[in-house]
Amino acid sequence: MVEVPGSSPVTPTLVHPERKFAGTMTTQTATHITANTANTAKPKAVRPTAAQRRQADIAEGIIKLSPSSLTFLHDECPACFWHHYNGRPRPATAFPKVFGALDNAQKDFFVGHSTKDIKKSLPAGVIERGKRVRSEAIALPGTSYRVQFAGETDTILNFSRAGYGVCDFKTSSPGEGASELYGRQLHAYAIALERPAGDAMPLAPVSRMGLICFPPDDMIELPTRATKRAAKPAAKSRAATPAAVKRYAYRTSAVWVEVERNDEAFLNFVANAVKLITRPTMPRSAPKCGWCRWSRMTAPLLEQTSSDALVHLSIDAA
Q: How far apart are CA 241 and CA 29, in angstroms?
């Protein structure tokens, strides 16, 4: 009780901490409760599966293709190619980090260089870093489906007077059939650059396509570079002395492999690939496909494991 001189005792009113500034707190609390109620009432969006997205694309008549899948995956196994676009893609194999490091080093080194540094017969221009591309829906011969390409180019050649070029870097010797195999990927990139989706600026015409290969020739020793060792306490050692660091490098040369452009042949190839993808049933797998063989071998074991698990659950429940 508090006594005020000249007045009767006044009993203080106890204000609950949560009720202080009741108007503000009530508004904030009500807003918080309303938000929580709305969040609770609204069901969380479930991302559609790959199979559901594929069915939606088929219903719309547009097949979205990754340019890189048109190379090795398509040629290695029809069943794996079909599964890649129908909900059960085979796991990606680990890509050695050394090749990724070499690929990045090649791009970083050549970006900004003249196209003549790659091959004298190329039109004059500048080598630019690649970009992510997505094409508009492209009509295909012999089918009602349209196709949309989406991926990322390695490098773009910006020619002074001859449009553009698109190419891939390869840390290997140019093998036989490389231009045909990787040409599918380059054709998809070229079409996406010339006919991009949405409001993206087209880069047209794409007049040259090719591979830039860097086969390792030999190894050389580079000039030594002196560094200083960490100094020990003065009482126990002499002053810091320079130590020679051995440095080495692989010697290589840039080999340009020209890829002739033939959009008609490429789109016919893609039309057949789309017919394969949109089959209602899985095609026969390639005889030497290791992934399909492993899947067939492990399927009975997986079924047995699932059956055993159900039995144990039934016993535990009982």
A: 70
- From the candidate CATH numbers 3.30.1380, 3.90.320, 3.30.110, 3.30.1490, the one assigned to the domain spanning 50-228+241-291: 3.90.320
Sign of CA dihedral 198, 204, 205, 210: negative
* Alpha-carbon distances of 204 from 67, 102, 116, 157, 256, rounded to whole Å: 19, 30, 20, 12, 21
The alpha-carbon radius of gyration of the chain (Å, integer) is 33
Q: What is the pTM of this model?
A: 0.73
Which ranges in 156-289 belong to alpha helices (H)? Answer: 178-194, 263-277
Residue 141: per-residue pLDDT? 94
Nearest-CA neighbor of 295 among 94, 96, 77?
Answer: 77
The residues near 90 (Cβ < 8 Å, ≥ 6 apart) are 80, 83, 84, 291
Answer yes or no: are the C-beta atoms of 157 and 205 closer than 8 Å.
Answer: no
In this predicted structure, the answer to whether residue 252 has a pLDDT above a threshold of 80 is yes
Q: Which of 195, 183, 182 is nearest to 149 (CA)?
A: 195
CB 187 within 8 A of CB 236: no
Q: Residue 48 has what pLDDT?
A: 83
∠ Cα 262 263 266 (to 5°):
90
Q: Tokens 């880069």 appear where?
A: 203
* Number of helices followed by number of strands (H, E) in the chain: 8, 11
Q: Which residue has the tokens 């508009």?
A: 136
State pLDDT tens for residues 73-115: 999 999 999 998 887 787 777 667 888 898 899 999 999 999 9
- Report the amino acid identity of residue 222: L
Predicted confidence (pLDDT) per residue in 115-154, tens digit: 999 999 999 999 999 999 999 999 999 999 999 999 999 9
How far are the Cα atoms of 31, 204, 235, 276 from residue 240, in angstroms, in the given order?
68, 60, 13, 69
**Rounded CA gap, 122 and 165, in Å?**
10
List, as own/partner pairs, every contact residues 20-24 make where C-beta atoms lie below 8 angstroms and the sequence separation is at least 24, other chains included.
Answer: none
Q: Tokens 């452009």 sit at which residue?
A: 261
